[in-house]
Amino acid sequence: MLVLMIAFPLAVAAEDVWKPRETNAAWQDECGCCHMPFPPALLSKGDWNLLMQDLDKHFGVNASLDPKLRDEIAAFLERNAASGWGYSADSLRITETPWFMKKHKAAIRMLIKGRVQSLADCAACHKGPGTGFED
Q1: Dihedral sign from CA coordinates of 98, 99, 101, 102
Q2: Residue 132 falls within a domain, yes or no?
Q3: Helix (H, G, I), strand (E, B) or coil at 37
Q4: Quick check: is 71 in a domain?
Q5: Which residues contact 117 (CB under 8 A, 6 or more apart)?
Q6: pTM of the model
Q7: Which residues lie below 8 Å from residue 81, measured CB to CB, with a gap of 6+?
Q8: What is the pLDDT of residue 12?
């Protein structure tokens, strides 16, 4: 019983992907000017590194940054990245990681039925305190 009482808060904290262990205004501003600044815990350190290296080809858009700013954001993403199974995708798309696919089966069904436009539209399902999508 004591083990469960100790382990449960740790498991909950690990699931709170919406709140990085630290904040970074550059990440909020730069990534948030075009799309939601996706929480760092949704991709692996290696994937964030690769993604930040090729910002001139960021999913078909030139999202290049000043090198100093790019390095600051990349370091923040890497420090707060996911670890463990399932947080990496060849495409570098969060929505194609094994973790996302397993966790979001209902969202995939909603996409197929046309009830959501994109799996990257987190606010379609995630609303309320702590998600960044408060009503």
Answers
A1: positive
A2: no
A3: coil
A4: yes
A5: 111, 124
A6: 0.79
A7: 40, 41, 43, 44, 45, 47, 48, 87
A8: 33
- 25-32 vs 67-79: helix axis angle to the nearest 10? 110
Question: Is residue 21 one of the residues assigned to a domain?
Answer: yes
**Count: domains in the chain:** 1
In a domain, 41, yes or no: yes
Residues 6+ apart with CB under 8 A from 36: 120, 122, 123, 132
- Report residue 7's pLDDT band, with 50, 70 and 90 as the boundaries: very low
- 44: domain range? 2-85
Q: Which of 64, 48, 46, 65 lies closest to 56 in space, CA to CA? A: 64
Output the six-digit token pair for 123. Answer: 């606010």
How far apart are alpha carbons 93 and 99 in whole angstroms?
A: 12
